[in-house]
Amino acid sequence: MNHEDIKKLIEGSVPVDCHAVDLVGSGAPFTTFVKTCVGSGDVELLTRIEKGGTLLEDLLGQLPHVFYPRFLEGETPVPSAIIAARRFAGLALSISDPSAREQRMEAWQDWQQRAYATPIPGRAGTDAALAWLSNEDPGTAAEAAIRVLFAINNNGQDNSGLQGRLSARLIPDRPPGLAPDPSQMTFFSADKAFRRGLEIAWRHAGGKLRGQVLWTIESQTSELVAGPMPRIVGGSLSTAFAFVLNELERRHRRLHTLTWFNPRSHVAIIGDLKEDGTLASVGGYEQKVTAAAGIRRLVVPEQDFAAVKTLTPPRLKVRKARTWQHAARQARRPHTWKTLTASLVLLASSGGAYVLHDNVVAAGAAALLRQSDDAWQRDPVLAGHLAARSWALTQTPAARYRMLRTITTRLRAVLPVDDSKIVIAFSPDNTRLATAGERSGVLELWDSHTGDNAVTTRFPGAKVRGLSFSADGARLAVALSDKSAVLLDPTTLRPLTEPLRHDSPVLSVSFSRDGRSLATVTEEGTVRLWDVERRRLSMPPLRTKPTGQTTIVALSPRGDTLATGGNDGKVQLWDLGTRRLIKTLTEGNSIVNAVTFAPDGATLAAGGTDYAITVWDVGTRKTLATFRHDRSVTGLAFSADGKTLASSSTDMTARLWDMETLRQRGAAFDGQGRYLTAVALAPDGRTLATAVAGGTVRLWDTASWQPEGKLLPTRHNQPAVTYHPDGRLAVADGNEVHVWDLPAGTHTSYVHPEQVRAVAVSPDGRTLATTGRKDNLRLWSDGAVKAVSPATSAIYRDLAYSQDGKIIATGGSGQAQIWDAASAQPLTKPFGKGILGLAVGGETLALAHSGTVELRTTREPERPGAILKTGWSRVSDVDVSDDGELVAAAEGQTGRVGIWDAGTHRRLRDFVVTTSPIYHLAFSSDARMLAAGTSNGEVHVWNVEYGGLLAPPLRVPGGVTGLAFSPTGEQLAVATDSGVEIWRLNIPDDPLRAICALTRETDSTSCPA
């Protein structure tokens, strides 16, 4: 059977013989052939097509097995089985890459399995298939449908008229287009006129759609062609298509029109669509009107109105239209008593529509946020985009927070790898990520920058246990459970050689740096070293003891040393030259899940179920460092320069470890409530890939929410920090204040005669103020002391300028005092009692007492003010926003934080940190963020508007002794008893644009062009 014969067979026009192996020969059309041949029990007839032919031959070989069981009525197959077979064969072709035969076959098989193995109750197989493609419940995607009228000649049988239904569904997260694709509808039994009309409709009404449109036309009045149409002739459906596409765009914009103006099922639009969008006449109106049972409104081309009007009974209302837009408006015109009632209500109250519209929009926005929360753990990027759509409807703090939450997770893509256990590996050139499912045996290559799928292959009957790229990127090694390891071309995933055979399932593979050697380990604990070029063993198998306990292997870059680990908790080093054990580095009752060498081969890291990551010097075999997760370590990977080690864990986080400072670098990568089973770090260190238990691989940006530069050294163990208005950072360190130019890495020092307790910079940036033990207040300008206050016995630990820069407030030793900012002379006597701290913002002066916060003004600081009752026994710190409108306070020991409105004294927010006491708070300059530092080195950053954490806690060395946001909010300085760290937060001013850039989507609904 040749290619043309197969095409004709799908179209139903090729003569066939039940008993002819090549299906060519005796004269029955395809429908008769299936009724006769398949109905007579010869269900294996089509499988006798010789393999190795065209894709269509293979597809047809699958048809009986897929469709025959689903379309039986008793023992007789119904005609819709044949129609559905043709339809889905064409649809499978149209959504597949025409250049990749294997991928098309897999797409076809997956389509059939998902569409028909688990049909949705109460829905046809077509809708089940559409629901699968949309990856969501059928009720959640934008859908539109309208009745259509046909006058066709079907398979030689004259039909006076047919009434059908045109349905479509919009899948927003797929590339824009139509499925079936008009350009490939030769396989779908559509003539040129229909394809032309569909292309015109897409150009006119589909141009604004951002996603894939899945559509179907089903007959509702003919028994012969009940269900999907076997063949579509003529362009008369193009106007109905334009309307449905336009309706999808309107519905996707979510409730931009009132629901009662939507079209009803008793409306039909007919007429051919011209290139300019106007309607052209079509024939067969007599048959169409006859078939229009149950239809009440018929929209026709303007020039045909009079002729059609004479044919229609009184119950059928005919409306004329000049263009497809006009036809759409006619179809949407209100025509029910509900609309009349609604119109009367609108006339009675001119504002009613606005109120109703606002309520409907608010409900839609809230529904999108609920969907965002539901998607958060599965796909945070999707959750962020749903929040952007909600923001486009109503700009609420909840929507803004959910967009920010996506950005600050640093997640950049979620790859749909559908498997419970996944192995991953980056290519050396940083462009590709390989993922493989252990259960499914599917191996995929992804573009590591865009997250797009590049190529896929499958290992039927085998599980993928391990992946390894050669250093030159020329080979990809795959460990398989079918007792083999295979070497693939990493661009096409085609085998380069015959499989490397083993005696038992292969668990792990590892290349040497030169790519000439490949190490494998099998289930019984045997390690083999292969000569890749010659495809043979380069040494006898190495059998580890006890047998079967070794499950993972790592080959040193030079290929002379092997590291093994496994179920017995041992990490062992082997000399491959002598085939002897060098040393057992660790042993215990835990399981070793990951072993990896640094690129220079000098360092080895291993981790497992004891929650620990141990790092050794390979030469001396001494332990260099031990890092800890909160649960089992599941994966390890070094960066190409060896300066960073990445780890994944069942504690639902991935972490980066700095191999120079031997501590965690940056904030943890949150798995959103899912175990992480594997990790890979791109060679440039900027992209981290994590495998999530139960499916999906996530790509993360490692640059944001990380420490910027090195730790600023301090000699004193309790430094304090504040930012200069121009972005420089002032650090109080012992009896010195260092003002750092952070980009240049240089600083200017101010030497105080005694220990500096606090430091502040005037709003104009011209004066630096410090407090000490004896001469309590000093003012510095141009590197010299400008003024010194009279000495007192008080020790002032808090220091703040007023908003206008005219006064300075100090607090400590249970009292507060106000000073002249120009002369450092006291303006008031010490006042208050039991004051534990103070803060100034705008005209608000906040004084922290044992269990309350008192609010005074900088104009009348000695006058008692309003009392905010915290409900705590002790307030450990207090801060005020720059505009003086918000007050934050912390209760140290229990980790509770509250935020109040300074004007109304109303409590707005409450936060709790359960890990450690809180002693330091700081608002960002725009008061949208609040940071809290703990005694165990955690910094929590909250979104003030909504009240949620923006990211997992930042971890710093030592306890936090001070916090300060930069004027722009892009940086957070954290003072600790080990030094000062500068964190880059990357909080966007416009989270909507950031979300749109992340999802690479632009539409008129939520993302600006």
Provide an overview of this structure.
It is a single chain. Helix content is 20%, strand content 35%. It is of the alpha+beta class. The chain folds into five domains: 1-120, no CATH class; 141-348, Ribosomal Protein S5, domain 2 (2-Layer Sandwich), CATH 3.30.230.10; 350-410; 592-703, YVTN repeat-like/Quinoprotein amine dehydrogenase (Methylamine Dehydrogenase, Chain H), CATH 2.130.10; 720-992, Methylamine Dehydrogenase, Chain H. Strands 24, 25, 26, 27 and 28 form a five-stranded antiparallel sheet that branches. Strands 37, 38, 39, 40 and 41 form a five-stranded antiparallel sheet that branches. A hairpin with a 5-residue loop joins strand 18 (442-447) and strand 19 (453-458).
Query: What's the rounded overall pLDDT mean?
Result: 77
What is the total domain count? 5
Q: How much helical structure, as a percent, in the residues?
A: 10-25%
Number of beta-strand segments: 73
What is the CA–CA distance across the termini?
51 Å
CATH class of the largest domain: Mainly Beta
- Name of the CATH superfamily of the largest domain: YVTN repeat-like/Quinoprotein amine dehydrogenase
Largest sheet: 5 strands, antiparallel
Q: How many helices in DSSP terms?
A: 16
**Level-2 CATH architecture of the largest domain:** 7 Propeller
Q: Structural class, judged by helices and strands?
A: alpha+beta
